[in-house]
Amino acid sequence: MGKIKIVFSVLTIIISIFFITRALKFEQKLDPGKYKSPVFQITGVSENSKLFQDLSLETPLTVSNTSFTKNLRIKTDSQTSFELLYKGSLLNVLPDSYVFYHPRREALSLISGELYWVKSSNSPIQFYTEEDKAPINISFSGRIRKSPDGSLIIWSYKGESVLKDKGNFINIPSGQCLVIDSKKKQKFSLIPKATTLIAPENKSVQISKFTDFLVKIDWRIVPGVTEYKVKLYPSPLRETILLEKVVSLNRTGLDLEEFEQIREFYWEIIPLNEEKVEGEPSRMGQIKLFGILISKERDSRPPELAITSMTVNGNMVLIRGDADINSELYIDENPVKIDSNGVFIYTKRYKTLGLKQIIFRIVSPSGVESIQTKQVTIYEE
Question: Contact 127/99 with Cβ under 8 angstroms?
């Protein structure tokens, strides 16, 4: 009898453990808990945030009151972006984007729009380029843009990305970009690497007069690149592009006067390849303004330009001069670099003899332009 009691007790304990374990598993499946998902967390939203749960932008989404343990659709308006941690990696979702998160499968889909990513480890991470379809194993860092017409662009900045499209695996090597148009035609492009140095990375400017709004920026030349895109934002989340321009030199000026109500700016440099496809962006520079503008009168004077010498040697003309360092200088529409002291040197070559006209054009950051014309005679030695 004693042995039977012992066996019965052991069986009772085993059966109890079985049902308790089953109950715990069932409870975890139904209610993972009232905590922010360690897989999907929104960590930052642009200042005037407007997130929605529907395409019609009628149902607002409040991050603090949202459970990330249920199916979630997030739509941003034209001026809102947000930052999220997905499986430990950082994603920056831009304006006019639409994403879907399925917590049970820990699956993220980019339905439309654009995002940047940076992985925090070498572990494989994927998300979908359609709702629960066309997964992409992402590179260490990159960018993706999905247009409403179905076209897709994927940038692999560092490391390789792999897109699975209708059963086919498409490898996107490091430093390359894949473009798939609306007719599913594919095209690969090499993209330039990011510049390794920008200046200023962090600058504070005290405003007391109009010229204080003119800020000079420069960056290290990217080999093989002849054009750069400059983008200016009110925050590192890239929610609104305040300024965007393409320049030929590795320096330019920013006129921040028209954004006087904004006191903090972020800028980045994006090299362009020959096909005008954007390469890897630089680190972001930060500019902070403080102080009060004493005079509202806009300085409309043209930038300074002085030609100090023009030396003719055979078919060549060596030109030296001084110019406003915050401006852009062109000689016969060719961009000319001005050094940090405001000095420039340029060599002009001719194939024919005779009287030649040289046109100098200089443009201030605020768009004020000045033109000078000089003449030289090319003669046979």
Answer: no
Q: Radius of gyration (Cα) for the chain, nearest Å?
A: 29
Bridge partners for 247 per DSSP: 228
Query: How many Cα atoms sit within 13 Å of 300 on the Cβ side?
Result: 3
Would the CA dihedral through 323, 327, 331, 332 be positive or negative? Answer: negative
pLDDT, greater one: 237 or 25: 237
Give the pLDDT of residue 270: 97
Which DSSP letter does residue 120 get? S
Query: What pTM does this model have?
Result: 0.71
Which of the four pLDDT bands, split at 50, 70 and 90, describes residue 2? low
Taking the C-alpha atoms of residue 77 and residue 55, their distance in angstroms, rounded to an integer, is: 9
Residue 200 tokens read as 């200023």
Spell out where 248-284 has E strands. 251-255, 264-271
Contact assessment for residue 128 and residue 111, using Cβ atoms and an 8 Å cutoff? no
Alpha-carbon distance of 294 to 298, in angstroms, equals 11
- What tens digit of pLDDT does each residue of 226-243 get? 999 999 999 999 999 999
Tokens (6 digits) for 262: 């904004």
Query: Which H or E run includes 13?
Result: helix 2-30
List alpha helices for the chain, DSSP H.
Answer: 2-30
142/152 Cα distance (integer angstroms): 14
